[in-house]
Protein backbone atom coordinates (compact mmCIF):
# COMPACT_ATOMS: atom_id res chain seq x y z
CA UNK A 1 0.00 0.00 0.00
CA UNK A 2 1.50 3.29 -1.10
CA UNK A 3 1.21 5.65 1.83
CA UNK A 4 2.54 8.73 0.08
CA UNK A 5 1.40 9.53 -3.44
CA UNK A 6 3.43 12.02 -5.46
CA UNK A 7 2.64 13.78 -8.70
CA UNK A 8 3.55 14.51 -11.39
CA UNK A 9 6.03 11.80 -12.28
CA UNK A 10 7.93 14.26 -14.46
CA UNK A 11 7.81 18.01 -14.94
CA UNK A 12 9.33 20.38 -17.47
CA UNK A 13 9.49 24.07 -16.62
CA UNK A 14 11.05 27.05 -18.34
CA UNK A 15 13.79 28.97 -16.55
CA UNK A 16 12.22 31.55 -14.27
CA UNK A 17 8.96 29.65 -13.97
CA UNK A 18 7.34 28.06 -10.95
CA UNK A 19 7.70 24.32 -10.36
CA UNK A 20 4.95 22.68 -8.32
CA UNK A 21 5.07 19.12 -7.02
CA UNK A 22 2.22 17.63 -5.04
CA UNK A 23 1.98 14.87 -2.46
CA UNK A 24 -0.88 13.26 -0.61
CA UNK A 25 -0.73 10.98 2.38
CA UNK A 26 -3.14 8.60 4.01
CA UNK A 27 -1.98 8.01 7.56
CA UNK A 28 -2.90 10.85 9.91
CA UNK A 29 -0.20 9.66 12.31
CA UNK A 30 2.47 11.17 10.05
CA UNK A 31 3.91 14.22 11.77
CA UNK A 32 6.99 15.24 9.81
CA UNK A 33 7.10 16.00 6.10
CA UNK A 34 10.50 16.51 4.44
CA UNK A 35 11.36 17.06 0.80
CA UNK A 36 14.54 15.63 -0.67
CA UNK A 37 16.46 16.59 -3.80
CA UNK A 38 18.49 13.96 -5.63
CA UNK A 39 21.00 14.48 -8.43
CA UNK A 40 22.13 11.55 -10.59
CA UNK A 41 24.67 9.37 -8.83
CA UNK A 42 24.08 11.06 -5.48
CA UNK A 43 21.99 10.27 -2.45
CA UNK A 44 18.89 12.29 -1.62
CA UNK A 45 19.66 15.52 0.23
CA UNK A 46 17.23 17.24 2.58
CA UNK A 47 15.81 20.35 0.95
CA UNK A 48 13.13 21.62 3.31
CA UNK A 49 10.77 20.09 5.88
CA UNK A 50 7.55 21.00 7.65
CA UNK A 51 5.59 19.86 10.67
CA UNK A 52 1.78 19.79 10.64
CA UNK A 53 1.34 22.65 13.06
CA UNK A 54 2.14 25.18 10.31
CA UNK A 55 0.56 25.65 6.89
CA UNK A 56 3.53 27.05 5.03
CA UNK A 57 7.31 27.17 5.27
CA UNK A 58 9.59 29.14 3.01
CA UNK A 59 13.34 28.88 2.57
CA UNK A 60 14.72 31.00 -0.22
CA UNK A 61 13.07 29.97 -3.49
CA UNK A 62 11.56 26.83 -1.95
CA UNK A 63 8.18 26.79 -0.21
CA UNK A 64 6.18 23.95 1.32
CA UNK A 65 2.42 24.40 1.52
CA UNK A 66 0.66 22.03 3.91
CA UNK A 67 -3.07 21.28 4.09
CA UNK A 68 -3.72 19.07 7.10
CA UNK A 69 -7.44 18.61 6.49
CA UNK A 70 -6.87 17.49 2.91
CA UNK A 71 -3.80 15.45 3.87
CA UNK A 72 -1.83 17.10 1.12
CA UNK A 73 1.41 19.04 0.87
CA UNK A 74 3.27 20.56 -2.00
CA UNK A 75 6.66 21.96 -2.94
CA UNK A 76 6.87 25.20 -4.89
CA UNK A 77 10.13 26.24 -6.52
CA UNK A 78 10.03 29.90 -7.50
CA UNK A 79 12.22 31.32 -10.28
CA UNK A 80 13.24 27.80 -11.30
CA UNK A 81 16.80 27.45 -12.58
CA UNK A 82 18.49 24.80 -14.75
CA UNK A 83 20.52 23.83 -11.66
CA UNK A 84 17.27 22.80 -10.00
CA UNK A 85 16.93 19.97 -12.50
CA UNK A 86 16.88 16.87 -10.31
CA UNK A 87 14.53 14.28 -8.88
CA UNK A 88 12.46 15.44 -5.92
CA UNK A 89 10.99 13.12 -3.30
CA UNK A 90 8.40 13.98 -0.73
CA UNK A 91 8.29 11.94 2.44
CA UNK A 92 6.28 11.54 5.60
CA UNK A 93 7.40 10.09 8.89
CA UNK A 94 5.99 9.24 12.27
CA UNK A 95 6.90 7.76 15.58
CA UNK A 96 10.01 7.43 17.61
CA UNK A 97 11.72 5.29 15.00
CA UNK A 98 11.22 8.01 12.38
CA UNK A 99 9.36 5.53 10.17
CA UNK A 100 9.64 7.45 6.89
CA UNK A 101 7.68 6.72 3.71
CA UNK A 102 8.71 8.23 0.41
CA UNK A 103 6.79 9.29 -2.64
CA UNK A 104 7.80 7.80 -5.98
CA UNK A 105 9.67 10.92 -7.03
CA UNK A 106 9.30 13.70 -9.60
CA UNK A 107 11.91 14.27 -12.25
CA UNK A 108 12.15 18.03 -12.79
CA UNK A 109 13.76 19.49 -15.88
CA UNK A 110 14.23 23.25 -16.06
CA UNK A 111 14.90 24.40 -19.61
CA UNK A 112 17.19 27.41 -20.12
CA UNK B 1 31.75 17.63 8.87
CA UNK B 2 31.86 14.17 7.28
CA UNK B 3 28.62 12.86 5.88
CA UNK B 4 27.34 9.30 5.57
CA UNK B 5 29.93 7.19 3.76
CA UNK B 6 29.07 4.07 1.78
CA UNK B 7 31.35 1.54 0.15
CA UNK B 8 31.87 0.31 -2.41
CA UNK B 9 30.29 2.95 -4.65
CA UNK B 10 29.79 0.33 -7.35
CA UNK B 11 29.66 -3.45 -7.18
CA UNK B 12 29.29 -5.88 -10.07
CA UNK B 13 28.93 -9.53 -9.25
CA UNK B 14 27.64 -12.75 -10.68
CA UNK B 15 24.27 -14.22 -9.85
CA UNK B 16 24.50 -16.52 -6.86
CA UNK B 17 27.40 -14.73 -5.17
CA UNK B 18 27.15 -13.07 -1.75
CA UNK B 19 27.78 -9.33 -1.39
CA UNK B 20 28.48 -7.05 1.56
CA UNK B 21 27.70 -3.35 1.50
CA UNK B 22 29.10 -1.03 4.14
CA UNK B 23 27.75 2.13 5.71
CA UNK B 24 29.56 4.59 7.99
CA UNK B 25 26.97 6.91 9.53
CA UNK B 26 27.56 10.47 10.67
CA UNK B 27 29.44 10.42 13.97
CA UNK B 28 27.04 10.56 16.90
CA UNK B 29 23.98 9.55 14.90
CA UNK B 30 22.18 6.78 16.75
CA UNK B 31 19.64 5.87 14.08
CA UNK B 32 20.66 4.12 10.85
CA UNK B 33 18.47 3.12 7.91
CA UNK B 34 18.95 1.05 4.76
CA UNK B 35 16.88 1.67 1.62
CA UNK B 36 16.80 0.20 -1.85
CA UNK B 37 16.22 2.36 -4.93
CA UNK B 38 15.52 0.63 -8.19
CA UNK B 39 16.16 2.49 -11.45
CA UNK B 40 13.90 5.52 -11.67
CA UNK B 41 11.95 4.47 -8.61
CA UNK B 42 11.38 5.72 -5.10
CA UNK B 43 13.01 4.52 -1.92
CA UNK B 44 12.07 1.15 -0.47
CA UNK B 45 12.71 0.81 3.27
CA UNK B 46 14.75 -2.26 4.22
CA UNK B 47 15.88 -2.09 7.85
CA UNK B 48 16.30 0.33 10.75
CA UNK B 49 18.73 0.37 13.68
CA UNK B 50 18.35 2.55 16.76
CA UNK B 51 21.00 2.43 19.44
CA UNK B 52 21.15 -0.96 21.11
CA UNK B 53 17.52 -1.83 20.37
CA UNK B 54 16.57 -4.80 18.23
CA UNK B 55 16.51 -3.69 14.58
CA UNK B 56 13.29 -3.23 12.63
CA UNK B 57 13.69 -5.76 9.83
CA UNK B 58 10.17 -5.42 8.48
CA UNK B 59 11.30 -4.16 5.07
CA UNK B 60 13.75 -6.91 4.19
CA UNK B 61 12.39 -8.54 1.02
CA UNK B 62 13.63 -12.08 1.73
CA UNK B 63 15.76 -14.12 4.11
CA UNK B 64 18.67 -13.65 1.71
CA UNK B 65 18.98 -10.13 3.08
CA UNK B 66 20.49 -9.40 6.48
CA UNK B 67 22.18 -6.50 8.19
CA UNK B 68 24.14 -5.84 11.31
CA UNK B 69 25.45 -2.81 13.10
CA UNK B 70 28.57 -3.25 15.17
CA UNK B 71 29.26 -1.05 18.16
CA UNK B 72 26.34 1.18 17.31
CA UNK B 73 28.22 2.70 14.39
CA UNK B 74 29.20 0.97 11.14
CA UNK B 75 26.58 -1.19 9.45
CA UNK B 76 26.88 -3.95 6.89
CA UNK B 77 24.08 -5.09 4.60
CA UNK B 78 24.61 -8.62 3.29
CA UNK B 79 22.80 -10.17 0.36
CA UNK B 80 23.29 -13.90 -0.04
CA UNK B 81 22.87 -15.86 -3.26
CA UNK B 82 22.25 -12.69 -5.25
CA UNK B 83 19.58 -12.62 -7.94
CA UNK B 84 19.26 -10.28 -10.92
CA UNK B 85 16.28 -8.57 -9.30
CA UNK B 86 18.61 -7.47 -6.49
CA UNK B 87 20.24 -5.02 -8.91
CA UNK B 88 19.58 -1.54 -7.51
CA UNK B 89 21.17 1.31 -5.62
CA UNK B 90 21.37 0.60 -1.90
CA UNK B 91 21.21 3.75 0.19
CA UNK B 92 22.11 4.21 3.82
CA UNK B 93 20.89 7.09 5.97
CA UNK B 94 21.45 8.17 9.54
CA UNK B 95 19.77 10.62 11.89
CA UNK B 96 20.80 12.19 15.18
CA UNK B 97 17.92 10.94 17.32
CA UNK B 98 14.82 9.05 16.49
CA UNK B 99 11.54 10.83 15.90
CA UNK B 100 10.93 13.73 13.50
CA UNK B 101 14.50 14.26 12.47
CA UNK B 102 15.85 14.53 8.93
CA UNK B 103 17.64 11.52 7.59
CA UNK B 104 21.02 12.18 6.01
CA UNK B 105 21.85 9.93 3.08
CA UNK B 106 25.05 8.55 1.65
CA UNK B 107 25.56 8.38 -2.11
CA UNK B 108 24.71 4.70 -2.19
CA UNK B 109 26.18 1.52 -3.60
CA UNK B 110 25.14 0.70 -7.14
CA UNK B 111 24.81 -3.08 -7.26
CA UNK B 112 24.67 -4.89 -10.59
CA UNK B 113 24.02 -8.61 -10.76
CA UNK B 114 25.10 -10.26 -14.00
Task: Summarize the structure in words.
The complex is a heterodimer of chains A (112) and B (114). Chain A has 112 residues and is mainly β. Helices cover 0% and strands 56% of the residues of chain A. Chain A has no helices and 11 strands. Chain A has strands at 4-7, 10-14, 19-25, 33-38, 45-50, 56-59, 62-67, 72-77, 86-94, 99-102, 106-111. In chain A, the strands form 2 sheets. In chain A, strands 2, 4, 5, 9, 10 and 11 form a 6-stranded mixed beta sheet that branches. The radius of gyration of chain A is 13 Å and the shape is globular. The termini of chain A are far apart. The mean pLDDT of chain A is 93. Chain B is mainly beta and 114 residues long. Chain B has no helices and 10 strands. In chain B, the strands form 2 sheets. In chain B, strands 2, 4, 5, 8, 9 and 10 form a 6-stranded mixed beta sheet that branches. Chain B has a 4-stranded antiparallel beta sheet with strand order 1-3-7-6, with no helix packed on it. The relative contact order of chain B is 0.33. The model of chain B has no long low-confidence stretch (mean pLDDT 92). The interface between A and B is medium-sized, with 26 and 25 residues.
Amino acid sequence: QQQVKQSPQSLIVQKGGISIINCAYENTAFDYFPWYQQFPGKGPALLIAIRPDVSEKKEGRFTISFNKSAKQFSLHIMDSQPGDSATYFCAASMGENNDMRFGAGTRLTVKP
Amino acid sequence: GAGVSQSPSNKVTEKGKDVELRCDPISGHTALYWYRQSLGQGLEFLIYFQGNSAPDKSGLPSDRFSAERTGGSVSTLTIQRTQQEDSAVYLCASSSVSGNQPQHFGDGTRLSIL
